[in-house]
Amino acid sequence: MSQIQALHQQAMNLAEAAAVARLRGAIEQATQITRQAFEQEAQAATLVASDLDAEPTRSVLHRSAASLAIECGELRAAERLIATALSGNPPPEIAEELKDLFIQINLNQYLKRQGIDLDIKALQGLVNQ
User: Fold this and answer.
1) Would you kindly state where each structural domain of the chain is located, as residue ranges?
2) What are phi and psi of 92, to 5 degrees?
3) Is the Cβ–Cβ distance between 103 and 50 less than 8 Å?
4) How do residues 7-37 score in pLDDT, each as one tens digit?
5) Residue 42 in contact with residue 77, Cβ under 8 Å?
């Protein structure tokens, strides 16, 4: 198994463990495990970042690392991961997911700068009813 695959598998195992901890109500433990998952996935993404021919693996790893970064509150790291993924040639559906993540990170901040205070989670709740 390549180092990239090993790091990715470790990250996914940690993410699953974090989800289980969250379900059990162990929020602090879940947070710590999620950070470990983020660090592993970010390492895997970094190892493949310069290989533009490694699609869709390259963009999938970056998308996953960005999602974990968001969960950890590492928004700048998430933005960098998204930008790196989009700077290659991700498949269209993954590119759309990366753009959605970018909007998720930045929409609330943009609206606040415009003087609009919007609770995105409350809005999602209204839309999903």
Assistant:
1) 3-127
2) -55, -45
3) no
4) 999 999 999 999 999 999 999 999 999 999 9
5) yes
